[in-house]
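so the lab meeting is tmrw and i was supposed to have these ready like two days ago... anyway. pasting both below. for each one the top line is the aa sequence and the line under it is the structure tokens. i havent really looked at them closely yet so no promises
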Amino acid sequence: MGNRKYILVFLLVAVAYRGNAQSVNTFDQADSVSNAQYLAGNWQQLLATGKVAIGAGFDSPALRQRLGYARLITGDYSGALKDYDVIFKNDSYNTVARYYAYLCHKYLNQELSASYNAAYLDTDQLKTEKTSSYGLINTGIESSLKVNDNTYRGTSSYTRVYLTNRLSWRWQLEQSVAYFNQYITGSTVQIPGAPLLATISSNDQQLEYYGKVSYSLTENLQLMAAYHYLNTNYQTVTYTGNMGLFGIKYSGVRFTLQGDVNMGSLISKHINQYNVSLMLYPAGNLNFYTISRGSYIDQNNTGTDVFSQIIGYKLLKNTRAETSGTFGDMNNYNDADGLYIYNAIDPTKLRLGETIFQPIGKHLQLQLNYTYEQKHDDTHSLNYNQHSITAGLLWKF
């Protein structure tokens, strides 16, 4: 009996190393072979065995648990979430699967979905992850300088500070305050009662507040609402802008789909903007991904289309980069869930950019961005180029 036991173990390990998934012919065999491969850390062979076993109808929560862990270890976080979702259909309180699902969402930068799973974790696991139903998620600052080749436009600056916190396991709040400033040389006009022509110049100054609340209906389905207030001072006149956003987001296997609408007013213009965006991450992680977004902007019954494309990729071991392009008339264009509103004096016609994300230690991340823009000065009927450099620091709690 003792010799049979050792022979059986030897055969199972041999199968594990060979990855002979075709030999899985019974439920017990699928369970024993996959477990041997799991214990040996042969993740690719385990995934091959799991595929054959599930195709043959030999599925089980234990097999899904092993497959989910194998995918997590090999960096296929989206694939692992698919396995854990199968477990949750019959056992929504499986804390082991919930913990690994929590980690997968964190690695995909899906904080609200991670929080949804954290609600199922026990006290010890929450202490290990240093998380709670209410607390800070991140805080940061970004600042940029924008230079151009238009003699009528000075260098502009933009600074934003922001904070994101968890209100509960299903509610998340993002807030930021921003300030924009640019010196503008206006048109030469005749001043009433004056013998000479005069050029009106002014600082274009803008103070902004942005708030966005998100709610997780399920692990993969979220609702969001945002409000953006703008206070603009230009040539002794103060303008106020109010924009709102309502949207829905669904995270599937290796994709995220979002639809939203921006509504409000900016400098006497009523604006409705409709957006659809699709994010694809074919490998189940952020080593390579694309984000495509189409927008239709209706301003006082005049419509324009804007399309943006982002390609993200792993540049070095811990360094990620994004190459982006936005095409179309970006006059009063709302971007990034209404966070950025392009309502400058001169509309942008083309925007190309490159961003680098570099972690510094466990909690700090440095962000550097270069953006090239083609803009049009309506007052002087000329096109010009603008270059901006943005630096940001993000602290993750």
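ok protien two:
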Amino acid sequence: MNYDRILIRYGELSTKGKNRKVFIHKLKRNIKRVLRNFEKINIEADRERMFILLNGENGLEIIELLKNVFGIQSFSPAIKTDKELENMKNAALDLFKKIHQAGETFKITTKRSDKTYYLDTNEINQIFGAHLLKNIPELKVDVKKPDINLQIEIREKAVYFSCENIPGAGGLPVGSSGKGMLMLSGGIDSPVAGFLSMKRGVEIEAVHFYSPPFTSERSKQKVIDLTEKLANISGAVKLHIVPFTEIQQLIAKQVPENYSMTTTRRLMLRITDEIRRKNDGLAIITGESLGQVASQTLESMYAINDVTNTPILRPLITMDKSEIIDISRAIDTFEISNRPYEDCCTVFVPASPKTKPKKEKVQYFESYIEFEPLISKAVENTETIAIAPKAAEQDGFGDLF
């Protein structure tokens, strides 16, 4: 790699106003975390761009890691020069000679952020195009589909040359939109919901309901492994494992079978909301997709939501299963989710759950049961694990959307 830095473009962050500094600070922090093993790098940021000075570090490894950082629209390996024309021409030619292969075509694309520079965009394109044609035999111009697009960015204090735009993951930096509690079941959907929430800047903590001996240690490990995959994207993630056996047994005993799933989901939501309150969260995130199962009809959601005023984020609400599976494969959670270890919802699922439950009926059934002490007990006995990122390298998902 023949570059000395990586130029990062903010994309959506550029639309922010007075609070843009907050978003940029979050992005810089997240990049530092992802690149924590590269001790020599320096990161510089201003309102328009961020630069990673490589200082001899492996730029190719850094590029692979940057592809997965939310808040980056695109980035380019680059070199920097001053604004003296001859120095610029020498730098451009030196870079081009190192990357150009015989028979490849090229074009010049100039962005003149510094409008006071004495040459305009067309003049710069002509000067540098002529310079390269003069010094590299058999080089040809192709302005429509060039093999190499030499990009020249003239800014106030320096000039940057690059030949590649690499798509980033887009979205907003994780942590810039507050914290949400992800109801993580162990299935295919909820990890994808967590991923998409992080893409919009939400810091997540996961909540899992565990019902031993009906659910095994392997089902618990499955959820830990899923949380680790999310941690590889966002940084350390807290996993709250809620003991749920006693509550589920009571529901099965006291609530009519066709309403037991509705009550189960209502109790899960109440417990998650209490954990959210204790951990300063602002929302609850679920993997619900409209109409996918009995608890995900509009009537069910209406009856279940009755227990909280907390915002509930449903990133998958309009997606079909194939779309969700595609994303789960891209973020490497699909195979883990497919492990044949049942969670508490699948173990206790009724034969004929109500698809259009009435809020008044479920309230009536629950009025005969004193759930509050059991909710407090479950919250008090919740096990919290801090899951750290495991892999230094992740598969790229910047081209998912």
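from a quick look at the 2nd one: The chain has 14 helices and 15 strands. The longest strand covers residues 74-81. will dig more after coffe
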